[in-house]
UniProtKB/TrEMBL annotation:
Domain (HIT): residue spans on this chain: 5-114
CDD domains: PKCI_related
Catalytic residues as annotated in Swiss-Prot or TrEMBL: 100
GO molecular function: catalytic activity
Residues forming coiled coils: none
PANTHER family from the UniProt entry: HISTIDINE TRIAD HIT PROTEIN (PTHR23089)
Protein name according to UniProt: Hit-like protein involved in cell-cycle regulation
Chain span(s) of sequence motif Histidine triad motif: 98-102
Protein's organism: Paraglaciecola polaris LMG 21857
């Protein structure tokens, strides 16, 4: 797959507000936050979409949720609740094709998400 901006963040070629890093994953604040706390947890392995997750990636993908909860606990945001979202492709609203777990916390969140206007040819 082609390189995305997230590969540049992993390689420290562009800056990010990093919250956690280990050999498998990186977590950093979203540049355009949609909640008082909005960060992304990504695998260091570049996987384009949920559709591209292979059986051997399952541990890596599960690790992302563990990292999310660890950060939220450390920030005192876990008990009140939060949302994790992974968007996929156009209808899911994905814009960066390197899977990432959105983590939104710090305020009550509405459900369901609204439909977006898409330009379908
Ligand atoms: P998606 O729309 O693919 O689900 O989410 C991509 C997310 O990445 C968006 O919420 C967007 O604000 C965030 N994002 C895009 N470029 C950058 C960047 O360069 N730095 C950071 N920290 N976040 C980014």
């Amino acid at each position: 797959m082609s390189e995305t901006i997230f590969t540049k963040i992993i390689n420290k070629e562009i800056p990010a507000d990093i919250l956690y890093e280990d050999e498998i994953s990186l977590a950093f604040k979203d540049i355009n936050p949609q909640a008082p706390m909005h960060f992304l947890v990504i695998p260091k392995k570049a996987i384009a979409t949920i559709n591209d997750i292979e059986r051997q990636d399952c541990e890596v993908v599960g690790h992302l949720s563990w990292v999310a909860a660890k950060i939220l606990k450390e920030h005192g945001l876990a008990e009140q609740g939060y949302r994790t979202v992974m968007n996929c492709n156009e209808y899911g609203g994905q814009t960066v094709y390197h899977i990432h777990l959105h983590v939104l916390a710090g305020k009550p969140l509405g459900w369901p998400p609204y439909s977006a206007k898409l330009k379908i040819e």
